[in-house]
Amino acid sequence: MTTKQKTTKDKILHFLKKEGALTVNEFTDRLQITHMAVRKHLTILEKDGLIQSELVKQPMGRPIQSYTLAERAEYFFPKSYEGISIDLLNDVKELYGDDSVQQLFNKREERLTNEYISRMSDKTPSEKMQEMVEIQNEKGYMADLSKVDDHTFEITEYNCPILEVAKEFKVACRCETEMLKNVLGTNTVSRTCCRTEGDNHCKFLVQFVS
């Protein structure tokens, strides 16, 4: 299976998704192309409404141009609603009450747990974390893993494929945390940042018993 090569446009959008804001110099360092080439790509992306720029004052010297993603760029990143419809969930809530929505998400949590847990057998905590990040990336979460110490890890998710659903139904976030606990085999999983709370990314701190 061949992997599609990322274009410079793709790379710029992904850098901004992960880092929030970047300058021309910072893009030049990351892309290893000239200032002129960077500015050309940025001009096109800004014209297309995918990025936006603003002048940022500096302690010394002239203000510099900083670039961020525009709202329209959100559609560029994976969105996998897995059959979940906000309208449908609202209808279920209206017809059968809040408990029915909770039960639906609990069922989804159970299904995902059963689907993923088989991939964790005979793995060390570190290997489990690598596998979990791979699973989340398969689902479009743009996840990264960092190691805090021998027993503690952090998952950062730069994209949320069900963001609009999670904004409306916070139970989705709680069920995802529970799913991580069950799949990884640890009760110590805490969500330290969340897109639905206004954070730029979702972050989970995962600890295994030493």
Note the main attributes of this structure.
210 residues, alpha+beta, Arc Repressor Mutant, subunit A, Muramoyl-pentapeptide Carboxypeptidase, domain 2, 2 domains, four-stranded antiparallel beta sheet, three-stranded antiparallel beta sheet
Structural write-up:
- 47% of the residues lie in helices and 19% in strands.
- It is built from eight helices and seven strands.
- It has two domains: 8-76, Arc Repressor Mutant, subunit A, CATH 1.10.10.10; 86-207, Muramoyl-pentapeptide Carboxypeptidase, domain 2 (2-Layer Sandwich).
- Strand 6 (188-193) and strand 7 form a beta hairpin.
- The strands form two sheets. Strands 4-5-7-6 form a four-stranded antiparallel sheet, covered by helices on one side. It has a three-stranded antiparallel sheet with strand order 1-3-2.
- By secondary structure, it is an alpha+beta fold.
Number of separate domains: 2
Discrete helix count:
8
Measured by DSSP, the beta-strand proportion falls in 15-25%
What is the succession of H and E elements?
A: HEHHEEHHHEEHHEE
User: Considering DSSP H and I runs of 4 or more, what fraction of the residues is helical?
Assistant: 40-55%
Keywords: DNA-binding, Transcription, Transcription regulation
Domain HTH deoR-type: 9-53
Organism: Niallia hominis
Protein name: Metalloregulator ArsR/SmtB family transcription factor
Condensed summary:
With 210 residues, this protein is of the alpha+beta class. The chain has 8 helices and 7 strands.
